[in-house]
Amino acid sequence: MRKWSAVLILIMGLFVLSACGEKKYEALAINEDVDICVICNMQVKDDAFATQLTTKEGKNYKFDDIGCMNEWKQQNGSDNIGMDYVRDYNDKAWIEFSKASYVYAETLRTPMAYGVISFKDTASAEAFVAEQGVGEVLTAGDLSSHDWKQNTDMMNMEMDGEGHSHSHEEENGEAGH
Questions:
Q1: Cα–Cα dist 128/144, whole Å
Q2: Residue 72: Cβ within 10 Å count
Q3: For residues 50 and 16, what is the distance between their CA atoms, to the nearest angstrom?
Q4: Model confidence over 29-74: pLDDT tens digits?
Q5: Which has fewest Cβ within 10 Å: 124, 137, 150, 174?
C-alpha cells in the first residue's frame, strides 16, 4: 500500500511541477537601430509589417515581413516555437499569430512583397478588403497552405532611384494612417 502511495505522490508532484513550469512568452519591442530580419537581413521597422517569434528556449527572432517569418518556419520547423506574433495593420498592437486574421492580395505592398497583412480580427480584415476593393481574408490555418510567392514586380517598385523603400503610408496613398 505504501508503494502505491509513494507512486501517487510522485505523479501528483510531477503534475504540479509541469503546471508551474509553463513558460509565458511576450512580444518584444522593436528597436529599429539594431533589429535585422534574420531571413532577408533588412532593417525591421517598428511598423504594421513587423513580426516575431520566440523559441521554447527563449531565443527571439524578428522579421520585417510575415513572409520572412514563414520562410524561417519552413527552414526550422514549428515544433520549437514557443509563441509567434504579428501586428495589427491598423494600430500595430501585437497579436498571437494563431489568433489574427489575414488579408492577401498580390498587389498589397509589404516590405518583401509577400502581400500578406494581419489584423486583430476578421471584421477588421473584411473592412480592409471592402475599403481597398482587393484581397482575400485568411486565417492562420489558411496560411499553412498559402503559396508564399513574392511579387517580384512589386519588389522592384518598392525601391526608389536611391535604393530606399517607401513607407506603406506613402505607397498605399494613406496620410496619417
A1: 22
A2: 20
A3: 37
A4: 999 999 999 999 999 999 999 999 999 999 999 999 999 999 999 9
A5: 174
Separation of alpha carbons 36 and 32, rounded Å = 8
User: Cα-atom radius of gyration of the chain, to the nearest Å?
Assistant: 20
> Cell triple for residue 106?
498580390
pTM for the full predicted model: 0.76
Cβ–Cβ < 8 Å for 68, 39: yes
Closest CA to 120 of 88, 167, 74: 88
Check residues 167 and 45 and name the one with the higher pLDDT.
Answer: 45
Task: Give the length of the chain.
Answer: 177
CB-CB contact of 29 with 63 (8 Å): no
Listed residue (151, 161, 73, 71) closest to 113, CA to CA:
151
pLDDT at 121 over 70: yes
User: What is the spatial distance between Cα 128 and Cα 33, in angstroms, rounded to a whole number?
Assistant: 31
**C-alpha grid cell, residue 16:** 504540479
